[in-house]
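Reviewers asked in the last cycle whether our approach scales beyond single polypeptides. To address this, we selected a multi-component target totalling 854 residues and predicted its structure end to end. The input consisted of the following lines:
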Amino acid sequence: MGITLNYVVKRIVFSTAIVLGISIITYVFIYLAPGDPAYVWAGRPRGPLASEAIAKARVELGLDQPIYVQFSLHVFRFFSGNWGLSIRFKQSVFSLVMRNFASTLELLLVSFTISIPIGLLLGIYSSLYRGSRIDAAINSLSIVLSNTPRFWIGLAMLLAFTSLNIPTYGRISDNFRGELIERIGLYLVDSLLQGRLDIFLDVFIRIIPPALALSLYPIGAIARVTRISLSEALQEEFVREAVSLGLPRNIVVYGYALRGLIPSLVQAIGLFFSYSLIEAMAVEYVFGREGLGNLLVKAIPANDFPLVTAALVIVALVYVVTNTVADIVQALINPRVTM
Amino acid sequence: MTYKPTPSVKRVVAYAYRDAITGIDPGVEFDTGVVVLHLIYEPLLKYDPLKNEFTPLLAVSWEKINDTAWLFVLRDGVKFQDGTPLDAEAVKFSIERTRDIYSETGRGPGYIWSCVEEVIVVNRTAVLFKLSYPARVDLIASGAYGAFIYSPKVVEYSGATSPIDPRLEEWFNEGNAIGTGPYKLASYRPESEVRLVKNDEWWGWKEVNNPSPPDEVIVKIIETPEAQESGLRAKSIDIATNIPRVSIPGLESQGYSKVVISSYHNFILVFNTRRYPTNIVEVRKAIAYAIPYDELINTVLRGYGRIGSGLVPYGFPGYIENLTYKHDLSLAQKLLEEAGLAGRISLEIVITAGYEEEEKFASLLKDSLAKLGIELTITSLPWEFVKERGASVWVNPNEAPHLIINDWWPTYPSPYEYYYIFHKDDKEWNWAGYEDEEYSQIIDEAFVLEGVDWAKSMELYAEAAQKIFNNAIAINLWDMMHIYVYDGGKLVFREEAFNPLYSYVIFFQYVEVKT
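The resulting structure, written as structure tokens, was:
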């Protein structure tokens, strides 16, 4: 595999630049936004000493310092791993972000477990039957899927499942909430680690509808990317040669043409995954699930800059990680690629 | 691998609350945490202003010895949730910590105890409140905030060096709690949910005699009315507090029940008295007369509210009847003409985003003012931004809105809680920019008289209310009624489950779960 030190250094620099960039942008936006984080940090005080409480909170948060000092302090704390306390929730930012990220990640993983095979299958069929009615139908379907509002489809699914008495609201039944031992925050895994099939099934049933709603966009997008890429690959010289040599169609398509597409598909799927993090916010909201989206919605009005920064950095890191994974897969599959 | 085809038979009740929990330090929390705290902790007394009735909780008897001394005798045999006994030391510790945090930092509700010079431990079950000025300690001890009693052991558990060490507050907010109440904290996620489990050792179960209280209460943070409705329909929520009013009849016809509780949570329209043209009394009065009060009740609140009278809500100590404006557009027009401003005014009103009633009221007012030729711009903002715009009246009055709605509720049962927001010294909440020395003196005097001559004190508050009314500084638009829509097939609420003084608190020990 051709992963060089140069590549590793580049990745680290790139990731650091992204985190730094997010920190700067978040801080600047919150600095310019209306609202006073000191008021929230002071606990929304009343009474004769309310002004004094807010003034003290301003000092505690460093908001009395010049902007460049504030910002340096903020970045230094962040990079030294001291993410501090949330201004709104008065809890560790790290814990808040991680537990909500785990919920979002679990939803995304299930969603992509559904969407990758379906998207690939649709894309392959569409490409193999290019120009036919099947192709037209799949193409139309993938356009519709990519553009259907997730909020709307989520709501429709929630109503449909509820009318069938299938529990879909929330991440876990209230009856199981106190029984689940959280180890890594992914409830499907935690319930299995605990040996509780009943909890696993409850969590599984609840995650399917939101995961389906979330998978519509990646299904459509993966299908379209696969169709275009495979159609181009099938025109390549080496594929035509393999056909002329009389190799079976399945071996030509799946063994040669599709294999060559894996790096670009992985890269595209990585992008869709990062994008779906944002999409997940609407779906989580509809299905009453905790997650990064819900957390951000509550943190932003309170000018909770430590929490907003951390949550956005996590989103950025997912983007970096998925891209890195895509690069590594590319290097693994294609020995000519050196990074 | 285990599998239970039917989930456990625990009685679990999910209560949807509309806002994230802001903290659970019983001595500091001054906002939404109260919905949780009243289940974990208890004050010495509980008070029902509507009945003017005290219920003994951790105190069994109390007595005013003189104007500056009150004696409280504690309930014997009560234990904190860590097994340590409730005693006079714990009362002293809790109240003095709450008071001291306020006096040191200005944070929390501890100002309600500023009258207390010292809490003296008389013996294991009796405390004497030595006051620096006369006050109604029985009312203060029933406060919705800041009156909780907690174990002094928390200092040791948290590794704090003193009761006011910030590490103790952090320890609480990490999800730790040791009270005496009917429920124990099981898990705390302020952004999404708080789980409470029944405290079998609670002293009050025999008195309550509830055969089927919830074993677990889950307070779920679901902010929007639409999401609460979805959760209710999906059976993931048993009690919703924030259902769109328009959906309530439909839900009732589908078998859901509702209970409507009056509250001391009111919505006050505040005029910017430092900016043209709302610095002119006639203009403010014209706006007050332009408000269509009947429509406000019928259309905006759909009957779930009461038109405010004076500043203090109905049923609260110091409430004054018939101190209201009436809808009269002709009179409004006349007042504008007297001010020489008819038909050429543009105003801004700031309201809180997501509050259905405020949004509808603002639209109603806009339509009504348009008939007078007044153009009203509605600015809808998150609460934190509303507060900033309101308080800016002291810094830059011409940038502060002409009108703003402040929703207010009391910390403890004293009219001063409502009148102080127009005190000349309150630069955070006096969004009118009203600076009237005489008004401030009247309410300060009334406050001190509360502990000596209650009737005289109420007279002075009434005088202050009249000043606010005559000058149209602010109008109490409506007193909120809290609507709880719930699964009537599962739950039965006893009368004691609600008390208007403790906003949005459901005392679950008085809720029966049908099995």
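Chain B has a mean pLDDT of 94. We regard this as preliminary and will revisit it once experimental data from Aim 1 are available.
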